[in-house]
């Protein structure tokens, strides 16, 4: 039996060309879930990030004209450009708080501007909090700490509300 990890890179890339954005991202992350050896994880991550694959996906979805307009500069890859364009299509171009998984982000024109935090509880934390850079230094009063908890809940609520609103709009369209 031939396993994909034994195939040459060129053949693997040919196979990856048949994947859509979601399956390509899943293949890229799937190895982490399956606890494969580091060499295979590295190979799949490199293959899943191939600039030509993401360029072709972008061109297929948004066309040649937009691909020419949004062609990445030296600091970005086609995968980055694809993700920004996709996020812009999904959530709009205005300033939004979005939830992806359990994580919350501030997004403007499809670009993530700031990581706000997560509902996932960190080790040693008594509750879920927002970004550690925004947490109080501990020098403040107990009242400031309780205000931070309220702000966290408000931002999580706004993020959840954005998701629910988007889901409701999609339901009407379908």
From TrEMBL:
Main localization category: nucleus
Any single GO CC term annotated in Swiss-Prot or TrEMBL for this entry: SCF ubiquitin ligase complex
Subcellular location(s) of the protein: Nucleus
Gene3D superfamilies: 1.20.1280.50
Cited PROSITE patterns: FBOX (PS50181)
Keywords for the protein's UniProt record, in alphabetical order: Nucleus, Ubl conjugation pathway
Coiled coil: none
F-box domain ranges (all copies): 1-57
Pathway(s) per entry: Protein modification; protein ubiquitination
Biological process annotations from GO: protein ubiquitination; SCF-dependent proteasomal ubiquitin-dependent protein catabolic process
Domain of life, source organism: Eukaryota
Its job: Acts as a component of a SCF E3 ubiquitin ligase complexes.
Oligomer and partners: Component of the SCF-type E3 ligase complex.
Protein name: F-box protein
Organism: Fagus sylvatica (Beechnut)
